[in-house]
Specification:
357 residues; alpha+beta; Resuscitation-promoting factor rpfb fold; 2 domains; 10 helices; 11 strands; elongated
Amino acid sequence: MATRHKADQPTLRSLTKRQWIRIASVCAAVGLVVAGGAATRSIYSHASGTPTAQPTAYSISDEHAASRGNARDALDGAPTYVNVTINGKTRTVLGTDFTDVKSVLDAGDITLESGDTVEPSLKTKVDESTTITINRAGAKMETEESKIPFNTIKKETSSLPKGTEQVETEGQEGILEKTNLVERSGDKVISSNTFASWVKKAPVEKVILVGTADPQPTEQPQPTTDTSDSASSSGASSDSGNASQPAASNSIGTTAPVGEMQQWAHDYLLANGGTEADFTATVFIISHESGWSVTATNPSSGAYGLAQALPGSKMASHGADWATNYQTQLKWFWDYCKDRYGSIQGAYSFWQANHWY
């Protein structure tokens, strides 16, 4: 039996051409699996290394932005993204169940006009490696900046006498940068569509400290009879002077609304069980995320709207007019904060610690 088994066993020379091809295919497949495993390990090793620096001014334009940081949770499943380039400027459209080019343009609220050229065609199937290129003759991308107003916050402190106020921080306006696809006829603008916008510089709130301490009764000076009493009196005066220096309060403060959107947000919150602190938290987050631009669109992620929802269509759960109605967007934002962080102020505290939410 041993001899026959040895005789039946194939040798390298006895292998047919088809068998050689099959062996080569198996080796190649094993090589790909090994290489893929090494590449994957490299990716996860990099991800678990030293964390990158957190943003310090705003969140909408940074990779650690709030909604973008939670994008995969927001999508309730495996996300799909497709890059769209219009006249040389690229923007990412994020969504689910993309089927073809047209479905991507619909999700990104990108409207084609007569004369536009699109590659690949509208019915072409897409995946995450697809880049859709649109060229619009006679139009070009133009950048403009607009100011983001700052808010005034009042914070109570026991370090100041009641009835007195002191400015702790001066306010500074922020800057919202927009990239528009503009078509002109001479000097006349025929059409202008916002392609992307982001907070280039976040506003800085003006902080005013409001005293809450009861005034201390004035003590009558005592006559001194020797130098030691005088020194003691001088020392007490010095200590009192140090104690009178105002200290910032840990309170989130009360914010004065600026503009129609903020006034509505303030009144709606207070009429529905919210507090002044909830409004202050709202103003801070929205000012840093979108600069109160209802159509703010981040080019690198597709985050959209006041709260930079990812994708923007998530807000459809609160109204079909989610793309343009600030009230619908704010209601979605408040519910998102409560669901994810327990409260609006919970989201604010997380933002303060991480510079995203």
